[in-house]
UniProtKB/TrEMBL annotation:
UniProt-annotated location(s): Cytoplasm
PTS EIIA type-4 domain location: 1-127
CDD domains: PTS_IIA_man (cd00006)
Any Gene Ontology biological process: phosphoenolpyruvate-dependent sugar phosphotransferase system
Name assigned to this protein: PTS sugar transporter subunit IIA
Keywords: Cytoplasm, Kinase, Phosphotransferase system, Sugar transport, Transferase, Transport
Pfam families assigned to the protein according to its UniProt record, in alphabetical order: EIIA-man
Domain of life: Bacteria
Transmembrane segment boundaries: none
């Protein structure tokens, strides 16, 4: 199992927890912890809270993937100070495909580096730029009303 620590600004992480309940109605697995950074919070306090959460993971944990919302912001900067090769890694730019893939595959994962790359690929592959309406996907009645 890989532990997942989500560090985001304020309640963004909790919104992602809600999203996981949509896809996994049985609830968030025990290997997912959410930490919301508060606007007036000192980075060292945030790191201490994160370390405390990491220590809550079970002993059979094969590392922790820390996912943050914005590269260069406080949650990311705190997470960067906690990276330890083979023990913890971070991914920035948290998005829904990243979160779902991580929650889905973390319980069976044992290789932190490979798992991190798999989750990163899900995040990237979940991004599309669509700039024109597809002809074959729009309901004809709805198209007439537009």
């Amino acid at each position: 199992m890989i532990g997942l620590l989500i560090i985001t600004h304020e309640t963004i992480g909790e919104a992602y927890r809600g999203l996981t309940h949509h896809f996994f109605p049985q609830g968030s697995p025990e290997n997912v912890h959410i930490l919301g950074a508060q606007p007036n919070e000192d980075q060292d306090d945030l790191i201490n809270r994160a370390i405390s959460m990491i220590q809550e993971f079970s002993e059979d944990c094969h590392g922790v993937l820390i996912m943050t919302d914005i590269f260069g912001a406080t949650p990311c900067n705190a997470a960067r100070r906690m990276v330890r090769e083979g023990k913890s890694a971070i991914l920035t730019g948290l998005n829904a495909p990243m979160m779902i893939k991580a929650v889905q595959y973390a319980p069976a994962a044992t290789d932190l580096t490979a798992f991190t790359e798999t989750v990163k690929e899900a995040a990237i592959r979940g991004i599309f730029a669509i700039t024109a309406a597809p002809d074959d996907l729009m309901c004809k009645k709805a198209a007439e009303d537009i």
